[in-house]
Amino acid sequence: MDNFQVETAQNVNIVHNVAGVGDRIVAYLLDGLFMGVYAIIVFVIFANTEISSDHFFIVGLTIGLPLFLYHLLWETLYNGQSPGKAIMQLRVVKIDGSKPAFSNYLLRWLLRSIEITATSGALALVTILLNGKGQRLGDVAAVTTVISEKETVSLSQTLLTEIPDNYSPTYPQVTIFSDSEMQTIKNIYTEARYHRNHKVILELAIKVANLMEVKYEDKPLSFLDTVIKDYNHFTQNM
Q1: CB atoms within 10 A of CB 78
Q2: SS3 content of the chain, % helix, strand, coil (to 5)
Q3: Predicted confidence band at 70 (pLDDT cuts at 50, 70, 90)?
Q4: Dihedral class, residue 29 (left if φ above 0, else alpha if ψ from -120 to 50, else beta)
Q5: Which sequence spans correspond to the domains of the chain?
């Protein structure tokens, strides 16, 4: 799953999980299904009701208007989600992660007829693929995007670390740690490395070395990387 990062005015980094094209298509098809079911139900109800020709306008309005406003109404009233998006755990948000205003929903909805209806979704698909932030033209104009709220776990978030088959461990003392303790060490190390927080890395390296009762000659970064790989080597081969 792709993601992108934005920095707010408060210097807070926000990482968005961009909704996959496949998920968006499925959500679109589900919404189409719900719209079709609604139209059929309403049509059957009116078909079994004696109405005059003067009431055909009311029938058309009852069926057509909700379908016409379907996405605008649902996304506005249901916090950025239509039923299809809710099932696929997708949501429309502003590019900074905040909740869109009605004007944002309205603008992306107005361009929907050009991107999706007129071109059968081809224009929207191409724009999303080229944009990199999950935005079709309506999203670009409205400063919104569609994100996925599905929880994803990458290898970096787990205890597992890729090591070569011929890996030779350096510190057998790593076995004093439990899985949960090593997971904590890896999480702190990964976070500090991402933010280039050398002070935290140094303090963590000193703490780990003291617990293992070893002295390291490498740089703190290299030492911690070796400790994590050594732990994986020993636990995977036990």
Answers
A1: 14
A2: 60, 10, 30
A3: very high
A4: alpha
A5: 3-148, 155-236
